[in-house]
Amino acid sequence: MAVSTIYSTQALNSTHFLTSSPSSSSKQVFFYRRQTNRRFNTIITCAAQQTVVIGLAADSGCGKSTFMRRLTSVFGGAAEPPKGGNPDSNTLISDMTTVICLDDYHSLDRTGRKEKGVTALDPRANDFDLMYEQVKALKSGIAVEKPIYNHVTGLLDAPELIQPPKILVIEGLHPMFDERVRDLLDFSIYLDISNEVKFAWKIQRDMAERGHSLESIKASIEARKPDFDAFIDPQKQYADAVIEVLPTQLIPDDNEGKVLRVRLIMKEGVKYFSPVYLFDEGSTISWIPCGRKLTCSYPGIKFNYQPDSYFDNEVSVVEMDGQFDRLDELIYVESHLSNLSTKFYGEVTQQMLKHADFPGSNNGTGLFQTIVGLKIRDLYEQLIANKANAPTEASKA
Amino acid sequence: MMSATASHGGVMMLPSPSGALQHQRPPTVTGSDMFRVRRKEPRGLRLVVAATAKYKGTKMREEKLSEMIEEKVKEATEVCEADVRSEECKVAWDEVEEVSQARADLRIKLKFLNQDPLESFCQENPETDECRIYED
């Protein structure tokens, strides 16, 4: 782990330009100025890069590759594994963002977990002290040597060097489990998949594999459920945004899980985050865009918007049930949503089009993932603007 | 019908006139047959390859993961016969989930992202066995 040190000087009444020299390429620069007439007043302006940290909680660890792509794509550039490193690395890097898989902080590898009788969902299988230390270091602009958990071999591989990025995303089962880590997050998201949808998705995922059958898929979900409910699910109360995925209400008795009802639950009062709304902020709206101006195919699209309460927090909920079938449906919907934090008209649609072949591109999952990406960009820009304007007052010398 | 005007770039294209009623479609619409308009390819030529591994090493990983799934499902089924609520049973199915997800991740990378995980390793080490180009 790279460490930066601060050197003090004897000279008074002068401006000193000091650089520490960590092994990483990101330098920390301190302007240190002491005035004799105000002996105890020092102002340190830290021009160091401030990393914005985003937490994303989802089951099955870091399988949300397409979600990550949507998030990082808002910032431009494709997120790719580190070049020249361990091919089984879980990390993704783009110009602005680095995505870390929290499975890398497993304290027990597959054999270890088998011996101790704990699943990966269990906090006992994870090193939260290390997670906290390293996320804290990256947030302060210090590079870290992060372990790699190899999902193929089930072993902990040699660590990889992670440079502090502009935006750090920590993705996995426990981003909000540990309170210290939670406090480091500038924004947090929980992807809440209902049991029926989870079952349908896992069937789609696994049925082609020769080892699997409906029974094995079902048994796996049920066996993991107690640990999931005990350790993972409770994190959603801490999230700033929850994307809840449920079966559709538009098709009676649908169990295919292809048409989805997706709810974006946004916490009110979060700094730099203004929830999306429909038509009239704070009111309750039910909206079916399909009609005279817009023709939709079966089963159509239905939107809801309302203020609500979620685990004792005030929230706003935007909900989409159904599917987009054509480009003009998407642009029509976008033009009626407010507070999207887009930079130009049609940006949501453009982002969705960029990844039109990803799963979820035609329903609320893709839509809300994209919107959350734009919200994160907005939050990032506000945070950076704020930090640039306010020099940090150091404590009395 | 709402007309879409793009103020930025030429990415969005207006759909062909489709004011007429859409005929009934089955509810199983996937993401890929969603937009029936051409979208502009991202900058730079992108070679769209089929969803198979490019390097032998990746193909081997795919096969290994598939084998592991089979093995671990068998194992979990046996272990759970004794006691479905035991720790061993939980852990066994968790392992199945882990390798199933790892298998799916690899498939997603190859299919949707056109990224072979061995790409950058093989650029540096083209002579290794793992980096032989996989031929069907």
From TrEMBL, chain A:
<dbReference type="Pfam" id="PF00485">
    <property type="entry name" value="PRK"/>
</dbReference>
<comment type="similarity">
    <text>Belongs to the phosphoribulokinase family.</text>
</comment>
<dbReference type="GO" id="GO:0005524">
    <property type="term" value="F:ATP binding"/>
</dbReference>
<dbReference type="GO" id="GO:0008974">
    <property type="term" value="F:phosphoribulokinase activity"/>
</dbReference>
<keyword id="KW-0934">Plastid</keyword>
<dbReference type="GO" id="GO:0042803">
    <property type="term" value="F:protein homodimerization activity"/>
</dbReference>
<keyword id="KW-0113">Calvin cycle</keyword>
<keyword id="KW-0809">Transit peptide</keyword>
<dbReference type="InterPro" id="IPR006083">
    <property type="entry name" value="PRK/URK"/>
</dbReference>
<comment type="pathway">
    <text>Carbohydrate biosynthesis; Calvin cycle.</text>
</comment>
<dbReference type="GO" id="GO:0005737">
    <property type="term" value="C:cytoplasm"/>
</dbReference>
<dbReference type="GO" id="GO:0019253">
    <property type="term" value="P:reductive pentose-phosphate cycle"/>
</dbReference>
<protein>
    <recommendedName>
        <fullName>Phosphoribulokinase</fullName>
        <ecNumber>2.7.1.19</ecNumber>
    </recommendedName>
</protein>
<keyword id="KW-1015">Disulfide bond</keyword>
<dbReference type="InterPro" id="IPR027417">
    <property type="entry name" value="P-loop_NTPase"/>
</dbReference>
<feature type="domain" description="Phosphoribulokinase/uridine kinase">
    <location>
        <begin position="53"/>
        <end position="251"/>
    </location>
</feature>
<keyword id="KW-0418">Kinase</keyword>
<keyword id="KW-0547">Nucleotide-binding</keyword>
<dbReference type="GO" id="GO:0009507">
    <property type="term" value="C:chloroplast"/>
</dbReference>
<dbReference type="InterPro" id="IPR006082">
    <property type="entry name" value="PRK"/>
</dbReference>
<keyword id="KW-0067">ATP-binding</keyword>
<keyword id="KW-0150">Chloroplast</keyword>
Automatic annotation (TrEMBL), chain B:
<dbReference type="InterPro" id="IPR003823">
    <property type="entry name" value="CP12_dom"/>
</dbReference>
<feature type="domain" description="CP12">
    <location>
        <begin position="65"/>
        <end position="136"/>
    </location>
</feature>
<feature type="region of interest" description="Disordered">
    <location>
        <begin position="1"/>
        <end position="33"/>
    </location>
</feature>
<feature type="compositionally biased region" description="Polar residues">
    <location>
        <begin position="19"/>
        <end position="31"/>
    </location>
</feature>
<dbReference type="Pfam" id="PF02672">
    <property type="entry name" value="CP12"/>
</dbReference>
<dbReference type="InterPro" id="IPR039314">
    <property type="entry name" value="CP12-like"/>
</dbReference>
<feature type="disulfide bond">
    <location>
        <begin position="122"/>
        <end position="131"/>
    </location>
</feature>
<feature type="disulfide bond">
    <location>
        <begin position="80"/>
        <end position="89"/>
    </location>
</feature>
<keyword id="KW-1015">Disulfide bond</keyword>
<protein>
    <submittedName>
        <fullName>(rape) hypothetical protein</fullName>
    </submittedName>
</protein>
